[in-house]
Specification:
There is one protein chain. The longest helix has 22 residues. This protein has 4 helices and no strands.
């Protein structure tokens, strides 16, 4: 076992600063990371664009009111909207899954 020897002049400060920088970088990355998408939400990106600049009739979901998203999914599930692929997709979700997907998309930043 090596005997303890104090760090050289300035070496301890460098190590401390590096440790603090690493801790802040790790904390900042953890805070900035978006919450993980709930089951089923990833499938939406196949048709729903991430930005408004995409030329498509399919509405972007990010930033929309969760209540509106949930209501639309429930309407599709019940057959209350014109038959599209959304009716078949929505039938595969339970009410708690619909609520989780709607809340997640509602919490995302609206595309510029």
């Amino acid at each position: 076992m090596r005997p303890f020897s104090p760090p050289a002049q300035g070496e301890g400060k460098t190590r401390c600063c590096l440790a603090l920088l690493a801790a802040f970088a790790w904390t900042g990355a953890a805070v900035a990371a978006p919450p993980e998408a709930p089951a089923g939400a990833a499938a939406c990106s196949g048709c729903h664009p991430a930005g408004k600049g995409v030329d498509t009739p399919v509405t972007p979901l990010a930033g929309r009111a969760p209540a509106d998203i949930a209501a639309a999914l429930r309407d599709f599930k019940a057959g209350g909207r014109a038959p599209t692929v959304m009716g078949r997709i929505a039938k595969g979700f339970t009410d708690p899954e619909i609520d989780a997907i709607a809340a997640w998309f509602g919490a995302q930043k609206a595309p510029p």
